[in-house]
Amino acid sequence: MSGEEQITGQHLVPTYLEDEIKGSYIDYAMSVIVGRALPDVRDGLKPAHRRVLYAMHDIGLLPEKAYKKSAAVVGEVLGKYHPHGDASVYDTMVRMAQDFSLRYPLVDGQGNFGSVDGDSAAAYRYTEARLAPIAVEMLRDIEKETVDFIPTFDESHREPTVLPSLLPNLLVNGSAGIAVGMATNIPPHNLGEICDALVAMIDDPEIDTAGLMQHVTGPDFPTAAFIYGRSPIKDIYETGRGHLTIRVRINIETIKTGRDRIVVSEIPYQIIKTTIIERIADLVHEKKIEGISDLRDESDREGMRLIIELKKGAIPQIVLNQLYKHTSLQTTFGVIMLALVDGRPRVLTLREMLGYYLEHRKVVIARRTRYDLARAEERAHILEGLKIALANLDEVIAIIKQSKSPEVAQAALMQRFLLSELQTRAILTMQLQRLTNLEVRKIEDEYKQLIQLIEELKSILASERKMLAIIRAELVGLKEKYGDDRRTEIVDAEGEFAIEDLIADENVAITITHGGYIKRMPIDAYRSQRRGGVGLSGMDTKEEDFVEHIFTATTHSYILIFTDKGNCFWLKVYDIPSGARVARGKAIVNLLPLGSDDKITAFVPVRRFVDGRTLFMVTSGGVVKRTDLMAFSNPRKAGIRAITLRENDTLVEVVQTGGGDEVLIATRGGLAIRFPEQKVRLMGRTSTGVRGIRLQAGDCVVGMVRVTPTSNLLTATANGFGKQTPLTAYRITGRGGRGVKNIATSERNGEVVAVREVMPGDEIIVVTKGGITIRTVVNDIRLSGRAAQGVRLIRLADDDAVIDVARVVGETREKQEINGESAPAVAALSADELDDEVPVDDEEIADDAEDEGDAADADDAADDDGGKN
């Protein structure tokens, strides 16, 4: 080929066709990768998503404002930012409004925005939209020059290159896209878990993947269902690639005819329900699956319910395995954690994604702080000029009056008082009312506050530690405002096993000291003694430390640990270090992230989380609350809020109930009240509760038991005395009354410290402040009347006192509970058994006509949030 040729005044540069195609295709590929298909690691958005959100923010479609037609949004985006067709813009907005596509939708849509059945959204002329509240967190502070702006396609407007994004959107909502030669598929996650992981990374910059997975247990899909298998999750977080197996949530029901049916209530992410139904119907028609007799969809606004009726004699598990094999009831989600980092595509690990987000937030905080500092310094500069003018008011007025024009006055003031143009302009525009003494003081106060603000802003810019503290506080606030429970459950796949599979399931005793040391040991470490003995040393405690709690559980159980502040933490019993009888144990702060002012007050061993069980709580102020046990089934390393307490109130006791049980609440002053748990309606996990017992002045609740009609109530007092009374001696009343006498709190007995429900054959372990323990058989403590003083449980030293009692279930009773047999009947009290006891006072203490809790119900509005939380 020849060189350049002159053709009609233009230069023609010859080139090979294959070179031109190669170069053009590379340009096209990079345009698709950077400008269309892949999300930015900082805000987790593609350009189209970012433009839709920014356009809605720009025209004021905020959560508190009225909805606008989607057509208006599409037109705004097309005209100013994204000239690529109305269908692509509307589809982008629709996906951000679908709660089955995004874990936390960014657009609040009104109208038909599609469904999990595969229905398309209505045309944009029919639907309306505005920003969702959580989307505002993506755009917060964008007006403070926190991000760079670039000209739009026609240079008539400007658009952000990235959003400030307080929300860690890339991991929280995930992303999917196909570019040229590469693709991304990032699963969504739980906001609370991601925030916890980011806080952990701030607290420990060297944290590894295993440490992060203490907070992020795995992806959390908006359609819930199950992730089948745990090991792939760690591989994905460490390499950025992998595959997840997702299964539907099913329940097998037996109908009246004796046949079984499979009920599907949750399906895998991005799977269309109608596709599943059609595929199952085809398999039945083709006789590849022969155990199905009927198939129907009973889903409604209350939730999904897909019914698969089985033929008589069909085995549900066999049919399920066939469905898993041939349909999308089980599917594979391929994960590629690919995102743009500085404009280049990179496959990232979990730790890298979190790290890049934190770096972005540091840049945003720094730029926001510099913006606020500039505005504060500018305002302080003006106030300094006003102060000079007010200090020389007469002369300033004279100069202004003598000047022929504002320009002359401005020049004269600048020369006389060495003021800037900005200051003199503010003086000349100042209203006369600003000359009053009150306004002068306001100016001086504002100036002082601005000086303090400027110093604070400068200190933030000079300290990365302060910046990280701000980021940490914002993440904690974000979690508290928008965090919710996990939806997707993670279960072990076949062939996987947990550490507990290698640990024997046995009963153990767990002790916790006042100083916060915990240990577990075999039950038989405490040999039985007769009541009234001197006991054994339970553990070596530090000076001024003592054993405060003791209870029994099995090694495979969870322990729900509740603090006096109303917080709940999870701990597996086998994770508690085992120790000898005299060992002190391990500091509980090394096992749980307790707050500095958290004090443990209650423990609930839970073998497994099942529907129909509830947690019943009582506070020292007599407030009670009942919450579904499943609300506590998703462990979080940082714990959760179990109850919202009123001022100066503390959580005292939590028991597990079955929905139809009764509870008995006992007070320090020797009173008790018994009522059905159904007198307290089910409430949300963070609600406050309602009144359970009306306390006398100076009294408080010390304990609570779940009532078994055939069992007894053991009451222990501080001076080492106690008694055993049939629970039938406490009549059922309504909640909110003052109760009946439980035990005489005489000088001999002291105040009540603990109550426990016991039965013949049980044993108890009494613990004293000095660390002394005694284990004795309940049968050694004879039955007494309700107001009796009781007998000696342990002989105490002069400066010692009983602080807790734990029940050890007897072997006979344990077998009966496992086999579902009836418990032995409680013996009735005879006159001889009451000879040396204080007689029972059958006249209950007056409860102001609140026996049925009528007045207590009137107080519910002040005490309870209605379970909305």
Q: Mind explaining what this structure looks like?
A:
With 869 residues, the protein is an alpha+beta fold. The protein has four domains: 45-164, Topoisomerase II, domain 5, CATH 3.90.199; 249-328, Gyrase A, domain 2, CATH 3.30.1360.40; 358-478, Orthogonal Bundle (Topoisomerase, domain 3); 499-863, DNA gyrase/topoisomerase IV, subunit A, C-terminal (Neuraminidase), CATH 2.120.10. A four-stranded mixed sheet has the order 16-11-10-19. It has a four-stranded antiparallel sheet with strand order 12-13-15-14, with helices on one face. Strands 23-20-21-26 form a four-stranded antiparallel sheet, with no helix packed on it. Mean pLDDT is 84; it is low at 1-6, 811-828, 830-859 and 861-869.
